[in-house]
Amino acid sequence: QVQVGESGGGLVQAGGSLRLSCAASGPFSTYAMGWFRQAPGKEREFVAALVWSTGMTSYGDSVKGRFTISRDNDKNMVYLQMNSLKPEDTAVYYCAVHGGRKYEYWGQGTQVTVSS
Fold it and tell me: How would you classify residue 69: left for phi > 0, otherwise alpha for psi between -120 and 50, otherwise beta?
């Protein structure tokens, strides 16, 4: 059974930083791992992704230059370092595993709240 879990969310003041972690385990092959977020009343938004074989990364326009995705190969974990946080970054952040065709395994999400 595939399990994906996020941690590291919390409450932070604007301009602060948080680091999210994501652990994935189970019988799957990893093409990429990504972070998404969803704020109340809004659609889910792509935040960042990392292709496992190459290390290539990509970011949503709203987080470029502030967020960094990284990985620990041995532990099958991915991280999201979030700097210069803004109130509009407030959302539930989800980690997902891309098996080659689509993001098919998702975590439960972790809440990030940025106060002004």
Answer: beta
Residues 6+ apart with CB under 8 A from 1: 26, 27
Q: Is 88 helix (H, G, I), strand (E, B) or coil?
A: helix
For the stretch 32-57, pLDDT in tens is: 999 999 999 999 999 999 999 999 99
Q: Which two tokens stand for residue 91?
A: 């959302």
Q: 62-100 in b/e burial notation, b at 16+ Cβ within 10 A?
A: ebeeebebebeeeebbbbbebeebeeebbbbbbbbbbee
Distances in whole angstroms, Cα of residue 65 to Cα of each of 4, 5, 25: 26, 25, 30
Which bin fits 83, alpha (ψ -120 to 50), beta or left (φ > 0)?
A: beta
> What is the dihedral angle through the alpha carbons of 82, 84, 86, 91, rounded to the nearest 10 degrees?
0
Residue 76 identity (one-letter amino acid): N
